[in-house]
Amino acid sequence: MKILYYDCFAGISGDMNLAALIDAGLDLQALESELGKLGLDGWSLKASKASRGGIFGTRLDVLVSDEKNCCRRTGHFGHSEYSSHSEHSGHAHRKFSDIAEMLEKSNLSDGAKKRALSIFSLLAEAEAKVHGKEVSEVSFHEVGAVDSIIDIVGCAVALELLGIDEVVSSPVELGGGTVECAHGRLPVPAPATAILAKSFPSKIGGANHECTTPTGAAIIASLCSGFSGKIEGRVVAEGVGVGHRESPELPNVLRVMVFDTEASCAEKAGEAVESMAELSANIDDMTPEHVSELCAKLMAAGALDAWCEPVVMKKGRCAVKVCALARFAEKNKVLRAFFANSSTLGIRESTVFRHALGRELVDKDTEFGKVRFKRHCVAGIERVKPEFEDTKKISESTGMPVDIVSEKLKHGFEK
User: Fold this and answer.
1) Domain, as residue range, for 399
2) Fewest CB within 10 A of the end CB: N or C in the chain?
């Protein structure tokens, strides 16, 4: 199992992220080849060696030459897609729906499409909140430009090319001072960055400039599953992405590390700790059928688990406490599903830590055909369990009880 660790002590931006991944071993030609599947013209990537604060790494320039995007990323003085563009810079203004359609029509892999769309979705939600619009009405300015699309889709492609299974991060430095954007001079963090920062631990004031851009914040919010910084394994790659700004306070760099955690279940249990959001509401005016459907909607929206607990409310009313567990990247979607499918007027949120054993899903040919098994390890003992949905289908087709089918499958796996 490969874990990508972001060390964001000086923040993160889209171009610094790609530069760090290239410095860690990402093949530039393979990246350009995959990005070519987007169908965008008039761009190229230039990677070069550079240093900030005595730390050497890779600097990446997205060179854009078409008429609507006639600028060079080399002209930037800061991290940000917000830093040096204006509303009249000639950059294309693309709606979220345009970008989603571009991704859907591309020949990128399903995994890359999903990751890129997740990052763009969080950006669109943040921008919609800033401007008081619906997500469908959001029109990206800087982030809709070709260079920023390359940054985001490139990140999604890079994780696939590097074989990354999980992404974690340190607390993220947001910066300070002000930043120029399409809407004038604004305080740091930029409004969209501040909204996205609700999804991860952060700090401000480490430098008097924008350290984390909206794109960088969306990458962390969308991709990271944990922020504990506790990783066991062997470092198999590391890289440094160099930003375009010289900073007297912090070296303007992003460091990444790739860990091989020895994912073999027989070798290690692989316990992981993740911080997550737990959402809950007490409900006393919905039927059991409707509560059941609510839980199903919460799961469909991205909750890792949804459940009900019996409670007694004020005036002695019997009710249910509906709860959902979600990663921070999916929290807003789960919240919307909670409000849309329930009668509650308020939802409580708390941060919890989940301790989870490492597990893997394996396919195996059995007497009933191909079946999925979940395998994990506890105290050096391997345990295997067939997926219930597969067991259920076999039971329905053969007429055998579910528990008998399950035992046969376990016995067959051991053979």
Assistant:
1) 359-414
2) C
